[in-house]
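Before any further analysis, backbone shapes were mapped to integers, which produced the following:

***
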Amino acid sequence: MSNAVHSVPTPVNEPVLGYVPASPEREQLQAELKRQADEVVEIPLVIGGREIRTGRTQDVVMPHEHGTVIATCHLAGPKEIDMAVDAALDAHRDWSTMPWDRRMAIFLKAADMLAGPWRMRMNAATMRNQSKTCHQAEIDAACELIDFFRFNAMYAERIYSEEQPPVSPPGVWNQMEFRPLEGFVYAVTPFNFTSIAVNLPAAPAMMGNVAIWKPSPSSLLSNYVGMQLLQQAGLPDGVINFVPGDAVEITDRLTGHPAFAGLHYTGSTAVFRKLWHRMGAQLETYRNYPRIVGETGGKDFIVAHPSAEPLAVRAALVRGAYEFQGQKCSAASRAYLPKSLWNAIRDELVGKIDDISMGDPAHFANFMGAVIHEQAFERCKGYIERAQASPDAEVIAGGRCDGSTGWFVRPTLIHASTPDYESMREEIFGPILTVFVYEDEDWAETLDLVDETSPYGLTGAVFATERAAIDQARDRLRYAAGNFYVNDKPTGAVVGQQPFGGARASGTNDKAGSSLNLIRWTSPRTIKETMVPPTTYRYPFMADG
């Protein structure tokens, strides 16, 4: 087979379809939602390309209608976990040596399939499985995943072709080989973004690695569609193995294996720290030091200067805090507003929040759906009830929860009288925004509060029309957010435009959707070839005279 290298197509961001009334995409999606409503999907494990049905199953329900089962998923046990390791290591031999452009062709095909015939199937599954509106499903499950595949192919090409030693003196050829890791990558994926769930095993695979994918139990249907997409695009058996099951059992077995080569993780900070501790405690077990790439929690902020444009701040607060029920890693969860601005927008902000429509995302007029499961519902309910009882907080919008049919939490706005109130500090992952109002002249001190109140460093936004205030916020909040926005909400990072990730308690900041992430899944080898090697050990300086 020829090893000729051909440039991958130049990527552009996938256009976001609007789903406006009477549009073709709206009619197509509504038809697909109706079709899926009539089926209960049986989800197997996929190991070495084979569908495995263990008989140990878990029901998958819709968060907004939790009495409705949409799928039944088989779960792995120790036998199947070991099978997945064997299948991955068997696939490693051929996959790791396949020319890189042949690998990219598979994922580029998957991108085109998702942009075309698979789009509505993936979007509908995400809407039903994760209670996303058509818009939120479109920008996630379709557009972002398409962008991951296309842009990662471009970044991979750059790594392979451009990251070469700049100097090869006469008689020597220096090269850099970007090998995949020696072993398997364990991908632990979140419920909230279908695109992230598929990308976590796919990004290492694009660089020649093999992966074992443990999907979230709360997004099994959409993730299974993603696995089927990759198979239909031609991914060889065993390169990615889809292994739902008990998180502790799978993690203990995989991270205890000598061939464990890396962890690609998105989830809670607490779980990530436990995993890191566990790996550190058994380093002698591993053939290589594992790569650890993680995106974890956030307590994302909006801070407004007195010069900020009021309507822009109001829109950013509503969209940034309440889209997808506040279940984005980047969702605005705390806001710092000057008293003058607060007085100008408070009543209208409360009115906009109270007017938000929520319910079944299949009804396209709804802005919000339900939170993902009962535990999330109870967590949100607890924060609201404590705020209602606290002398340091006031619930001024929302504050109502109804779990009778679905896990619905009304978009809630809390006014905290102290900057260290719990909902200003702690990650909630729900539709709850807390505002602290500061005196207009306390801008500099407020920036200190933003930086020091929370241990996280994922996303944040500053609103101001005065350039000096923007520059001051950029400097003072340099480490407070890995994705920093000026006069825009802190959500909505686009692949190829704003690579995503944060530091501090928010992760390793390896920037998904960039070459920074992909290069972590390589183990470079330097190769020096000398064309005419010396034949004596003696150097010229050793001559007599």
